[in-house]
Amino acid sequence: MAIHRGCHPILILHPIGKPKTRALRVSSKPGSRNSSNPPKKTLIFHGAKCPQPLDTVLKTFHALTKPHNVLFHKKNENLHPYENSESLEFLANKNECGLVAFGSHNKKRPNCVTLARIYNSELLDLVELMLLPPRDGETIPPFKELVMDVGLGLRPMMLFSGSPWDDPTSTAHIILKSALLDMFKGEETNQVDVEGLQYVMMVGAEEPQDGLSPIIHMRWYRVVTKRSGHKLPRVELQEVGPKFDFKVGRTRQAAPEVQKESMKQGKRPNEEARTKKNVTMDSMGDKIGRVHLGKQDLSDLQTRKMKGLKRRAGMESSDEEDEPSADMMEVDEVSSDEEIESHKKARKN
């Protein structure tokens, strides 16, 4: 179709009908609990002040969570998530983000990163990370000077080291671990390409001492494979990227009923709509089936022949050289009578 100068093409929009089934209505609803939905996006922005170390942290999170994030470059004043969460919820819902990484800086809490999660358009929980200066006297370089060589959309292998991560009484570490997994896990897949395992994200926690909060060490390593002379290569880790040390600050836990509701998982696309009887799944994910057999007819079952018993009785008598028992004599008599009758029938024929 030719379009003449001064004319504009007309775009015709056809209305889409409403979903007819309940399953389609639930899956098409924004924020529905369906495993086929894309991963959660992360909203990354900062407050009125953002020093260079804090800017490096936020841009590092932005680079490693692409393309599932939204980055704001302008400052946002009068935003206090712990005092009033309405502005945070509005920005997250407007940009369709389920995670928030907010950077703030003040005299009382310098270089602070607040991680928040949104559920059902409302704030679920909060955890605060206080960025510490490096111990070895080094400085956190600007993000432009960092070279990580991580491909777009690659998922890291995450390692949580330290006993605080396994402590059920440490609410702050439970929330922090869950938030980091939601942020960096990417898309869920059934198969993993070995070539895509290119870097490791290690989050280590020191042992708590004298009631103080343990320091959190965040490091990144590149996976390097070298020749080993065997079928499997030799794997080495090379440290890349910046070194971040944090201290856990304030936390806000979700209500128990809201937390329980948010942890429910919907049915997967390949899961059958109706569960089959006598089919279960074990802890390893293997399908186990139970088969019920009917009553078996044992009348036609072939038993052991008498010749075998006779031969066995003769072997036992020759080895032990004992007097045969009455039962064996009866078996021998019966077997001999059968042989005589069989010989007579053969002669008549």
UniProtKB/TrEMBL annotation:
Protein name: Ribosome production factor 2 homolog
The family this protein is said to belong to: Belongs to the RPF2 family.
Basic and acidic residues bias: start-end ranges: 258-275, 284-298
Protein origin, superkingdom: Eukaryota
Cell compartment(s), UniProt: Nucleus, Nucleolus
Keyword NADP set for record: no
UniProt-recorded Gene Ontology molecular function terms: rRNA binding
UniProt-listed InterPro entries: Brix (IPR007109), Rpf2 (IPR039770)
Keywords assigned: Nucleus
Residue ranges with Acidic residues bias: 317-340
Region listing for Disordered, in residue ranges: 248-349
Source organism: Penicillium desertorum
SMART domains noted in UniProt: Brix
Principal location class: nucleus
UniProt-listed GO biological process terms: maturation of LSU-rRNA from tricistronic rRNA transcript (SSU-rRNA, 5.8S rRNA, LSU-rRNA); ribosomal large subunit assembly
Family matches, as Pfam families: Brix
A cellular component term, taken from the record's GO annotations: nucleolus
Stretches assigned to the Brix domain: 40-257
